[in-house]
Design brief:
alpha/beta, single chain, 2 domains, Rossmann fold, about 260 residues
Protein backbone atom coordinates (compact mmCIF):
# COMPACT_ATOMS: atom_id res chain seq x y z
CA UNK A 1 0.00 0.00 0.00
CA UNK A 2 2.82 2.39 0.89
CA UNK A 3 4.47 1.69 -2.46
CA UNK A 4 1.31 2.49 -4.42
CA UNK A 5 0.53 5.64 -2.42
CA UNK A 6 4.09 6.88 -2.90
CA UNK A 7 3.88 6.18 -6.62
CA UNK A 8 0.64 8.17 -6.80
CA UNK A 9 2.29 11.11 -5.03
CA UNK A 10 5.22 10.94 -7.43
CA UNK A 11 2.86 10.93 -10.41
CA UNK A 12 0.96 13.95 -9.08
CA UNK A 13 4.22 15.83 -8.57
CA UNK A 14 5.32 14.81 -12.06
CA UNK A 15 2.03 15.99 -13.56
CA UNK A 16 2.41 19.37 -11.85
CA UNK A 17 5.87 19.72 -13.37
CA UNK A 18 4.47 18.88 -16.83
CA UNK A 19 1.64 21.43 -16.70
CA UNK A 20 1.35 23.69 -19.72
CA UNK A 21 1.41 27.44 -19.18
CA UNK A 22 -1.75 28.78 -20.80
CA UNK A 23 -3.42 32.16 -21.19
CA UNK A 24 -7.08 32.73 -22.03
CA UNK A 25 -7.94 35.51 -24.46
CA UNK A 26 -11.32 37.10 -25.06
CA UNK A 27 -12.67 40.47 -26.19
CA UNK A 28 -12.40 42.11 -22.77
CA UNK A 29 -10.51 39.64 -20.57
CA UNK A 30 -13.21 39.55 -17.90
CA UNK A 31 -16.60 37.96 -17.26
CA UNK A 32 -17.03 34.94 -19.54
CA UNK A 33 -13.30 34.36 -19.70
CA UNK A 34 -13.28 33.73 -15.94
CA UNK A 35 -16.04 31.14 -16.37
CA UNK A 36 -14.01 29.51 -19.11
CA UNK A 37 -10.96 29.54 -16.86
CA UNK A 38 -12.88 27.78 -14.08
CA UNK A 39 -14.07 25.06 -16.44
CA UNK A 40 -10.62 24.49 -17.89
CA UNK A 41 -8.88 24.34 -14.52
CA UNK A 42 -11.46 21.89 -13.20
CA UNK A 43 -11.35 19.52 -16.17
CA UNK A 44 -7.75 19.79 -17.40
CA UNK A 45 -5.24 19.32 -14.58
CA UNK A 46 -2.36 19.39 -17.06
CA UNK A 47 -3.12 23.05 -17.76
CA UNK A 48 -1.97 25.99 -15.64
CA UNK A 49 -3.90 29.15 -16.53
CA UNK A 50 -1.50 32.04 -16.09
CA UNK A 51 -4.00 34.80 -16.83
CA UNK A 52 -7.13 35.93 -18.60
CA UNK A 53 -6.44 38.87 -20.89
CA UNK A 54 -8.14 40.91 -23.59
CA UNK A 55 -7.32 40.46 -27.26
CA UNK A 56 -5.82 43.97 -27.38
CA UNK A 57 -3.29 43.06 -24.67
CA UNK A 58 -2.16 39.77 -26.26
CA UNK A 59 0.95 40.94 -28.13
CA UNK A 60 2.25 42.93 -25.19
CA UNK A 61 1.58 40.04 -22.76
CA UNK A 62 3.43 37.51 -24.92
CA UNK A 63 6.39 39.87 -25.18
CA UNK A 64 6.63 40.10 -21.39
CA UNK A 65 5.81 36.43 -20.67
CA UNK A 66 7.79 34.22 -22.99
CA UNK A 67 6.99 31.11 -20.95
CA UNK A 68 3.42 30.98 -22.36
CA UNK A 69 3.06 27.64 -24.15
CA UNK A 70 -0.54 27.73 -25.34
CA UNK A 71 -3.21 30.35 -26.06
CA UNK A 72 -6.91 29.50 -25.70
CA UNK A 73 -9.07 32.20 -27.22
CA UNK A 74 -12.80 32.90 -27.52
CA UNK A 75 -12.16 35.16 -30.50
CA UNK A 76 -10.10 34.90 -33.68
CA UNK A 77 -6.46 35.91 -33.34
CA UNK A 78 -3.66 36.30 -35.86
CA UNK A 79 0.09 36.67 -35.86
CA UNK A 80 0.54 34.37 -32.84
CA UNK A 81 3.53 32.09 -33.28
CA UNK A 82 2.84 29.74 -30.36
CA UNK A 83 0.09 27.05 -30.46
CA UNK A 84 -3.42 28.45 -30.07
CA UNK A 85 -6.99 27.19 -30.12
CA UNK A 86 -10.36 28.92 -30.58
CA UNK A 87 -13.26 27.83 -28.35
CA UNK A 88 -16.56 29.29 -27.18
CA UNK A 89 -16.81 30.84 -23.69
CA UNK A 90 -19.10 27.99 -22.57
CA UNK A 91 -16.59 25.29 -23.62
CA UNK A 92 -19.17 22.79 -24.83
CA UNK A 93 -18.55 19.04 -24.82
CA UNK A 94 -17.30 18.89 -28.41
CA UNK A 95 -14.87 21.71 -27.64
CA UNK A 96 -13.63 19.88 -24.53
CA UNK A 97 -12.76 16.92 -26.73
CA UNK A 98 -11.15 19.28 -29.23
CA UNK A 99 -9.01 20.82 -26.48
CA UNK A 100 -8.13 17.39 -25.07
CA UNK A 101 -7.00 16.16 -28.51
CA UNK A 102 -5.10 19.39 -29.09
CA UNK A 103 -3.16 18.96 -25.83
CA UNK A 104 -2.35 15.33 -26.69
CA UNK A 105 -0.95 16.39 -30.06
CA UNK A 106 0.88 19.24 -28.37
CA UNK A 107 2.49 16.76 -25.96
CA UNK A 108 3.37 14.17 -28.59
CA UNK A 109 7.03 15.21 -29.09
CA UNK A 110 7.58 14.88 -25.32
CA UNK A 111 5.98 11.44 -25.21
CA UNK A 112 8.29 10.20 -27.94
CA UNK A 113 11.33 10.92 -25.77
CA UNK A 114 11.67 7.66 -23.88
CA UNK A 115 13.61 7.43 -20.65
CA UNK A 116 15.46 4.22 -19.84
CA UNK A 117 14.71 2.56 -16.51
CA UNK A 118 17.53 2.98 -14.00
CA UNK A 119 17.27 -0.76 -13.27
CA UNK A 120 19.07 -1.30 -16.58
CA UNK A 121 22.20 -0.03 -14.83
CA UNK A 122 21.98 -2.95 -12.40
CA UNK A 123 21.23 -5.87 -14.68
CA UNK A 124 22.76 -7.56 -17.72
CA UNK A 125 21.51 -10.10 -20.29
CA UNK A 126 23.24 -12.77 -18.17
CA UNK A 127 20.93 -11.93 -15.27
CA UNK A 128 17.71 -12.30 -17.30
CA UNK A 129 15.88 -15.59 -17.74
CA UNK A 130 12.75 -15.71 -19.88
CA UNK A 131 9.86 -18.19 -20.04
CA UNK A 132 11.02 -20.25 -17.06
CA UNK A 133 9.02 -23.39 -16.39
CA UNK A 134 9.16 -24.11 -12.65
CA UNK A 135 6.77 -25.71 -10.17
CA UNK A 136 7.38 -23.60 -7.07
CA UNK A 137 8.41 -20.02 -6.30
CA UNK A 138 11.39 -21.21 -4.23
CA UNK A 139 12.84 -22.83 -7.38
CA UNK A 140 12.94 -19.55 -9.30
CA UNK A 141 14.33 -17.75 -6.25
CA UNK A 142 17.12 -20.32 -6.01
CA UNK A 143 17.83 -20.06 -9.73
CA UNK A 144 18.10 -16.26 -9.75
CA UNK A 145 20.13 -16.18 -6.53
CA UNK A 146 22.52 -18.77 -7.98
CA UNK A 147 23.13 -16.61 -11.06
CA UNK A 148 23.78 -13.58 -8.86
CA UNK A 149 26.23 -15.65 -6.80
CA UNK A 150 28.03 -17.07 -9.85
CA UNK A 151 28.44 -13.59 -11.32
CA UNK A 152 29.93 -12.34 -8.04
CA UNK A 153 27.12 -10.04 -6.92
CA UNK A 154 26.08 -11.84 -3.74
CA UNK A 155 27.32 -14.34 -1.16
CA UNK A 156 26.33 -18.00 -1.50
CA UNK A 157 23.98 -17.67 1.51
CA UNK A 158 21.82 -15.15 -0.34
CA UNK A 159 19.53 -17.84 -1.79
CA UNK A 160 18.80 -19.44 1.59
CA UNK A 161 18.05 -16.13 3.25
CA UNK A 162 15.86 -14.99 0.33
CA UNK A 163 13.74 -18.13 0.76
CA UNK A 164 13.62 -17.57 4.54
CA UNK A 165 12.41 -14.03 3.87
CA UNK A 166 9.80 -15.39 1.47
CA UNK A 167 8.50 -17.81 4.09
CA UNK A 168 7.86 -14.90 6.44
CA UNK A 169 5.60 -13.16 3.89
CA UNK A 170 5.20 -13.36 0.13
CA UNK A 171 7.04 -10.62 -1.77
CA UNK A 172 4.33 -9.94 -4.33
CA UNK A 173 3.46 -6.32 -5.14
CA UNK A 174 0.40 -7.04 -7.27
CA UNK A 175 -0.22 -7.29 -11.03
CA UNK A 176 1.63 -10.61 -11.21
CA UNK A 177 4.97 -9.22 -10.01
CA UNK A 178 7.20 -10.50 -7.20
CA UNK A 179 10.36 -8.94 -5.76
CA UNK A 180 12.21 -11.60 -3.73
CA UNK A 181 15.24 -10.34 -1.78
CA UNK A 182 17.41 -11.01 1.26
CA UNK A 183 19.43 -9.09 3.84
CA UNK A 184 21.82 -6.61 2.23
CA UNK A 185 24.75 -7.93 4.31
CA UNK A 186 24.98 -10.79 1.80
CA UNK A 187 25.32 -8.39 -1.15
CA UNK A 188 28.74 -7.64 -2.62
CA UNK A 189 27.54 -5.38 -5.43
CA UNK A 190 24.02 -4.16 -6.20
CA UNK A 191 22.32 -6.05 -9.01
CA UNK A 192 18.90 -7.17 -10.23
CA UNK A 193 18.11 -10.59 -11.69
CA UNK A 194 14.92 -10.89 -13.72
CA UNK A 195 12.75 -13.81 -14.76
CA UNK A 196 9.48 -14.30 -16.61
CA UNK A 197 7.44 -17.44 -16.07
CA UNK A 198 5.97 -19.59 -18.81
CA UNK A 199 2.86 -20.16 -16.71
CA UNK A 200 1.57 -18.05 -13.79
CA UNK A 201 3.02 -19.41 -10.54
CA UNK A 202 1.34 -19.49 -7.13
CA UNK A 203 3.08 -16.90 -4.97
CA UNK A 204 1.39 -16.67 -1.60
CA UNK A 205 -2.18 -15.64 -2.33
CA UNK A 206 -1.40 -14.33 -5.85
CA UNK A 207 -0.25 -15.56 -9.23
CA UNK A 208 3.08 -14.29 -10.54
CA UNK A 209 4.52 -14.12 -14.05
CA UNK A 210 7.30 -11.53 -13.60
CA UNK A 211 10.06 -11.74 -10.99
CA UNK A 212 12.63 -9.11 -10.07
CA UNK A 213 15.18 -10.48 -7.60
CA UNK A 214 16.57 -7.44 -5.83
CA UNK A 215 20.08 -7.40 -4.48
CA UNK A 216 20.42 -3.74 -3.55
CA UNK A 217 22.76 -2.35 -0.90
CA UNK A 218 21.16 -0.29 1.87
CA UNK A 219 23.33 2.75 1.26
CA UNK A 220 22.01 3.16 -2.28
CA UNK A 221 18.76 4.80 -1.14
CA UNK A 222 18.40 7.05 -4.17
CA UNK A 223 18.65 4.07 -6.47
CA UNK A 224 16.17 2.13 -4.32
CA UNK A 225 13.60 4.92 -4.49
CA UNK A 226 13.92 5.15 -8.28
CA UNK A 227 13.74 1.38 -8.61
CA UNK A 228 10.47 1.17 -6.70
CA UNK A 229 9.01 3.98 -8.78
CA UNK A 230 9.81 1.93 -11.87
CA UNK A 231 8.35 -1.26 -10.37
CA UNK A 232 5.21 0.65 -9.45
CA UNK A 233 4.97 2.03 -12.97
CA UNK A 234 5.23 -1.48 -14.43
CA UNK A 235 2.63 -2.84 -12.00
CA UNK A 236 0.10 -0.29 -13.26
CA UNK A 237 0.55 -1.15 -16.95
CA UNK A 238 -1.19 -4.50 -17.74
CA UNK A 239 -0.41 -4.34 -21.46
CA UNK A 240 3.24 -3.58 -20.69
CA UNK A 241 3.44 -6.56 -18.32
CA UNK A 242 1.97 -8.81 -21.00
CA UNK A 243 4.52 -7.50 -23.48
CA UNK A 244 7.36 -8.31 -21.08
CA UNK A 245 6.09 -11.74 -20.04
CA UNK A 246 5.49 -12.98 -23.59
CA UNK A 247 8.88 -11.90 -24.93
CA UNK A 248 11.39 -14.67 -25.68
CA UNK A 249 14.41 -12.58 -26.71
CA UNK A 250 16.47 -11.19 -23.82
CA UNK A 251 17.82 -8.17 -25.69
CA UNK A 252 14.33 -7.19 -26.87
CA UNK A 253 13.04 -7.66 -23.32
CA UNK A 254 15.64 -5.25 -21.97
CA UNK A 255 14.93 -2.76 -24.76
CA UNK A 256 11.32 -2.50 -23.55
CA UNK A 257 12.36 -1.14 -20.15
CA UNK A 258 11.60 2.49 -20.88
CA UNK A 259 8.98 4.93 -19.63
Amino acid sequence: LTLHFQASIERLDSNRQKQKNVIIVCHMGIGMSQLLRTKIERKFHQIYVMDCISKDDLDDYLTKHQDVELVISTTSISGVKIPHLIVSPLLEYTEEKKLEDFIKQFDEPVRQEKTAFSMLDYTTPFLVSLQDDVEHRYMIIEKLAKVLYEKGYVEKEYAVHAIMREKMSATTIGAGIAIPHANSKFIKQSAIAIATLKEPLDWGTEKVTLVFMLAVKNEEQKMTKQLFQELSFISEQPSFIQKLTTETNVMKFLSYLHY
